[in-house]
Amino acid sequence: VQLVESGGGSVHTGGSLRLSCAASGYTYSRRCMAWFRQAPGKEREGVAGLGGGLGGNIYYADSVKGRFTISQDNAKNTLYLQMDSLKPEDTAMYYCAAAPWCGTVVTSSFAYWGQGTQVTVS
Fold first, then answer.
1. How many CB atoms lie within 10 A of CB 7?
2. For 39-53, what is each residue's pLDDT tens digit?
3. For residue 118, which of 8, 34, 86, 102 sits 20 to 30 Å off, Cα-Cα?
4. Residue 70: per-residue pLDDT
5. Closest of 49, 44, 50 to residue 92, by C-alpha
6. Do 112 and 96 touch, CB atoms closer than 8 A?
7. CA 19 to chain centroid
8. What are phi and psi of 19, to 5 degrees?
9. What is the pLDDT at residue 53?
10. What are the phi and psi torsion angles at 90 (to 5°)?
């Protein structure tokens, strides 16, 4: 499984960005997809997840509920994260991750990772 993120950048507070994650490889291995982020000096945290084992098949961290939307285009094998009303505390490296199944959106549940894309909000 290969995951390639894109769409990061620098925006002002209140702005929007859409991250994309192009996925390839065995479909079974990426039935659960998620976005994580890691700010300098902090642990990597789950932001949003979709599919395989999640309650209601979708998960959002409390900090992004109502502002971020995760979606997937199966025809394009692409995962998206629409981020609206961005805040400085959203500044981080954002990573796409995949797993055959994930009961929770935590790093230990995911075997496949992209290289990350930087989001800076000022």
1. 16
2. 999 999 999 999 877
3. 102
4. 97
5. 44
6. no
7. 8
8. -90, 145
9. 73
10. -85, -5
